[in-house]
């Protein structure tokens, strides 16, 4: 609603004179009619300035909130029920809403921010007698990578190709934290599982450690 009516009369002129081409809107901002119901404009998003002509995105539950600042300083787009929300990749989510930005993550909007948990298991598979050459690979048509058991020939062939510049083999480094020292005093050792080696192969590494000197 335009108050007072004189303001509407000054802003909303008839007939409408609109650009030949509609504006190109940023991601997450749809084309809507302006406050006069005349020309197409980009809907304003959460926290963006707004006025009688530049309207907020009603599909996201936003209104032009004049209570966010002193009188005469303008208004900003806010949720109608004053709930906090969050914006991710150009999309707005209400407080408490659960969403998936990708098939590997599930997130929840909370208090103006968001937290995410992985949907893919980050398990580690060490070499075993029945699977001496495990490998974590992306499976076509599936979101999460899976473990497969390579044969010795496949393993040797892939290792041979790893040293060739014609067959690049990208490796996503992964590793656990070093464990606590095995000895409370004197020399001990700690371990970790990592693939940070030449062949991008999971292996258990050990290193010497000294928590403190032993008493005489």
TrEMBL record:
It is found in: Secreted. The keyword Ribonucleoprotein does not apply. Keywords: Disulfide bond, Secreted, Signal. SMART domains: IB, TSP1, VWC. GO terms for molecular function: heparin binding; integrin binding. The keyword Iron-sulfur does not apply. InterPro entries: CCN, Growth_fac_rcpt_cys_sf, IGFBP-like, Insulin_GF-bd_Cys-rich_CS, TSP1_CCN, TSP1_rpt, TSP1_rpt_sf, VWF_dom. Transmembrane segments: none annotated. Residues 4-77 form the IGFBP N-terminal domain. Residues 84-150 form the VWFC domain. Belongs to the CCN family. This is WISP2 protein. It comes from Upupa epops. The gene is Wisp2.
């Amino acid at each position: 609603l335009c108050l007072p009516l004189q303001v509407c009369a000054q802003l909303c002129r008839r007939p409408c004179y609109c650009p030949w081409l509609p504006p190109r809107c940023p991601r997450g901002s749809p084309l809507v009619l302006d406050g006069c119901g005349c020309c197409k404009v980009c809907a304003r998003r959460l926290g963006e300035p707004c006025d009688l002509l530049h309207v907020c995105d009603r599909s996201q539950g936003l209104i032009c909130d004049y209570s966010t600042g002193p009188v005469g300083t303008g208004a900003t787009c806010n949720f109608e029920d004053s709930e906090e929300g969050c914006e991710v990749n150009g999309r707005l989510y209400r407080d408490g809403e659960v969403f998936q930005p990708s098939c590997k993550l599930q997130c929840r909007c909370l208090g103006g921010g968001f937290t995410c948990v992985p949907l893919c298991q980050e398990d580690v598979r060490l070499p075993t007698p029945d699977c001496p050459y495990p490998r974590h690979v992306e499976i076509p048509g599936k979101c999460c990578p899976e473990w497969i058991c390579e044969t010795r020939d496949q393993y040797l062939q892939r290792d041979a190709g790893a040293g060739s510049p014609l067959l690049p083999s990208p490796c996503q480094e992964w590793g656990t934290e070093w464990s606590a020292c095995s000895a409370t005093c004197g020399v001990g050792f700690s371990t970790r599982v990592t693939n940070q080696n030449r062949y991008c192969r999971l292996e258990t590494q050990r290193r010497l450690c000294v928590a403190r000197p032993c008493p005489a």
